[in-house]
Amino acid sequence: MARNFNAGFLFSFLGCRGLENATGIITDLGFECVVVDLTKNYFELFELPVSCQVDQQQLSSQYRALQRAVHPDRFAGDGERQQRLSVQYASHVNEAFDTLKQPLKRAVYLLKIAGRDVDMERNTIMDPQFLMEQMALREALSDIRSHANPEQELEQLVDRVDRDLDTYLKQFEGFWEAGEELDLDQAETVVRKMQFMVKLAAELEQLESELLDG
Amino acid sequence: MALLQISEPGQAPEPHQYKRALGIDLGTTNSLVATVRSGVAETLPDIDGQHTLPSVVHYGEQGVEVGVPAKNSSLIDPENTIVSVKRMMGRGLEDVDSLGGVLPYRFVTAPQGQNEGMPFIKTRRGDVSPVEVSAEILCALVGRAKDTLGGELDGAVITVPAYFDDAQRQATKDAAKLAGLNVYRLLNEPTAAAVAYGLDQGGQGVIAVYDLGGGTFDISILRLEKGVFEVMATGGDTALGGDDFDRIVARWMLREAGVDESSINSLQLREAMVEACRVKETLTVEPEVEVGFGEWSGTLSREQFDELVDPLIDRTIRAFKRSLRDAGLKANEIDEVVMVGGSTRVPRVRERVEGFSGKQPLTSIDPDKVVAVGAALQANVLAGNKSAEDMLLLDVIPLSLGLETMGGLMEKVIHRNTTIPVSRAQEFTTYKDGQTAMAIHVFQGERELIRDNRSLARFELRGIPPMPAGGAKIRVTFQVDADGLLGVAAEELSTGVKSSIQVKPSYGLSDADISRMLKDSFEYAGDDKDLRALREQQVEADRVVEALAVALEKDGESLLSEGEYTALLADLESLKHCRQAGDAKSIASEIERIGRSSEEFAARRMNQGIRQALSGQKVDDLEEF
Question: pTM for this one?
Answer without folding.
Answer: 0.75
